[in-house]
Amino acid sequence: MIGGVSTGVNTQTMTMLGANRVYPIEKRLLRALLSRSGNPPLGIVLWNGEEVRTSHDPPVARIHLEDRGTLLKLASDPEIHFGDAYTDGRVKIEGDLCALLEAVYCGMQDRAKRGVCAMLNSRWLDRRHNNTLRGSRRNIHHHYDIHTDFYKLWLDPQLLYTCAYYPSPSDSLEDAQVAKMHYVCRKVRLQPGEQVVEAGCGWGALALHMARHYGVRVRAFNISHEQIVYARRRAVEEGLSHRVEFVEDDYRNIAGKYDVFMSVGMLEHVGTGNFRELGKVIDRSLHSTGRGFLHSIGRNTPEALNAWVRKRVFPGAQPPTLRHMMEIFEPRGFSILDVENLRLHYARTLEHWLERFEKSAREIARMFDERFVRAWRLYLAGSATAFRVGTLQLFQIVFARPALNRLPWTRGYLYEHDATPQREQEWIRAIS
Amino acid sequence: MIGGVSTGVNTQTMTMLGANRVYPIEKRLLRALLSRSGNPPLGIVLWNGEEVRTSHDPPVARIHLEDRGTLLKLASDPEIHFGDAYTDGRVKIEGDLCALLEAVYCGMQDRAKRGVCAMLNSRWLDRRHNNTLRGSRRNIHHHYDIHTDFYKLWLDPQLLYTCAYYPSPSDSLEDAQVAKMHYVCRKVRLQPGEQVVEAGCGWGALALHMARHYGVRVRAFNISHEQIVYARRRAVEEGLSHRVEFVEDDYRNIAGKYDVFMSVGMLEHVGTGNFRELGKVIDRSLHSTGRGFLHSIGRNTPEALNAWVRKRVFPGAQPPTLRHMMEIFEPRGFSILDVENLRLHYARTLEHWLERFEKSAREIARMFDERFVRAWRLYLAGSATAFRVGTLQLFQIVFARPALNRLPWTRGYLYEHDATPQREQEWIRAIS
Lengths: 432, 432
What we know:
- The structure is a homodimer.
- Chain A is built from 18 helices and 11 strands.
- Chain A is an alpha/beta fold.
- A 7-stranded mixed sheet of chain A has the order 7-6-5-8-9-11-10. In chain A, strands 2-1-3-4 form a 4-stranded mixed sheet.
- In chain A, β6, α11 and β7 form a beta-alpha-beta unit.
- The longest helix of chain A is centred in the C-terminal third of the chain and has 20 residues, at about 370-390.
- Chain A is elongated.
- In chain A, about 50% of the residues are buried.
- Chains A and B meet through α14 and β10 of A and α14 and β10 of B.
């Protein structure tokens, strides 16, 4: 069960206080809340129908507050309670949800204004969702072990649940996810016969893609049981199970020696406190000419993920800064070859996901309930907005052992129109 | 006067001890020194003609030690005294200098073995060459205010004294330096009419290139008097002085607001302790849609620059790690868009410089003396080797204000064969 969202509104108490009346102190509370949020250009419609605005300009969108209890909760911790109240239907949106979120995110750039209550909630979540071996398993189970049929409704057919790469902005999600897999494989210059270890393999699409198109052998790790079962079945069906092994285990238990370390979309779940250990795992796993690739959601400055998203959607998730990420590489002397920020590609990917999600909203409501639909709508819309306004980043990092000189001379080969794996191998041989 | 290298060998004392004899304890000292250096495959020929080797394989090259004093100094601090002894002719090399240095660098990957004396020397140099406002001026004067005629003998005609970019490995140095300037301008997507501030502009080639080819206005800062005088003369001669202003001042004194912050090859001289201040300077200089570019020598792991190079060639220089560099950007919320490591391009650049330097060695000896030639040969060969074996990196970083969305959709435009500034502008307009 995703979320475990509870309403927690005591309507009896509300009625006793005079449910329809709005007291002056409540309006002052609302004004203070709006001011702390940077006075976004919104209209707030109170339970008596009265509208409070931050300016005379027409509002980008309107938020309807159903009752006094919702306002009080929002005032104590807007980050968590906005999401919960939207999920429960105690907050309703009139207008475009993404436009509303964009106005709020842009207003809230200065997070120093987060209140005491919100700070305590945020710390408590960190502690509760700590990514120990057991904690990680619980956190990953919460999100990824929802039945695969749900994800099939709005992800691409190969179920890639990470940022796609759009060579052209008008590409379809399907094409962009295939392009992403090729882009990633070419960034790390996979060569036939190489041994690859993948940390966090989702439903197995990339592992199978690497084996099929680049002739490598892959051991892919994941602690989501549901995903591993799915990936193994796919490997058998596609005749690739002799070249791809799916292991249901934590990245910390990776054993063996490999030419390439790959990880796409796992680092967000590792926790910065475990980065040195991850570096140690990569170090002991790679041959002396080894190289690797990390793809992760990130931040410009250290800041916890939105508390509601952590509480209801992604327990334990923590988008690191590049400085955090260097704690993986620096102590082990790895050489960073290339970093690319693809945040606008993730915004586009999430827009595609949200669009497909909305098309399947009725079916999803039948699978779960309306509250689930609202929670996931908010999570997808909020994520798209965060990447678009630049509060979240998407970093791709290519790294290698320090003395590896068999490197492409420039990055031009990544953008050749007639590029094929064969062409690329010739190209690398020509310069090395 | 570059270097101020002194011999410091007391030959009288040596004679009294029996100059030609080699005592067993001296051979033990040499063996210990070789072991601390990872036993590189070299032959060490002592002052009595005897050769000491680390293995039975033929040595990559031979080092001739002229006297016992040199051995003793090498044993106390090989990093500083090898350079000084080579400069003075008390150490002679038989065979290829670059091959010898490569063997030594590869052997010395584990720097934990640096002795107490060397550590103290290294710290003393750091303190002496501290990059305060006055210290930076003294440090930069030491290296860059050598007469320009000297640099003209071995740099490209436009006097670019930073890593070139070779679209093809066989490109000439001249072409590669022009390609570098275009590459850098295109990475940061200069647009006609924009205001650019350049921190550390050398002899002015990039500032003039930006104004000429990209239609921008440039204020370029440098604390090397000799370089600024040269750059100003060039601006007048080329009719660009109305669009390029050369300011003889420290980057810390940059004032005004700009669209783009550029810095190619200055960060190595800033000192990591000043990175937060540099971030503050960039922050206050950039408009809300501003972006920037940094190009710097770097390290995989924190480590001081070779002590001899700091003492004799580049006082105050300190190649930062990417983690260090993030101290510029993270506190100010800048978004890292792109990082590229071009260390093999710097190795190639240095090989070209060394080749041209050797062709002019006689003339340089007439300008200065033979000791100067040897010191610079060692510095150029040592740098080429460090980039080739991967103990030094060359990072190019593109960054921007966090909410800037007018970004190229992919990096492909950088590698289009028919790319021109106009073509690129159309391309950016098409996607934004």
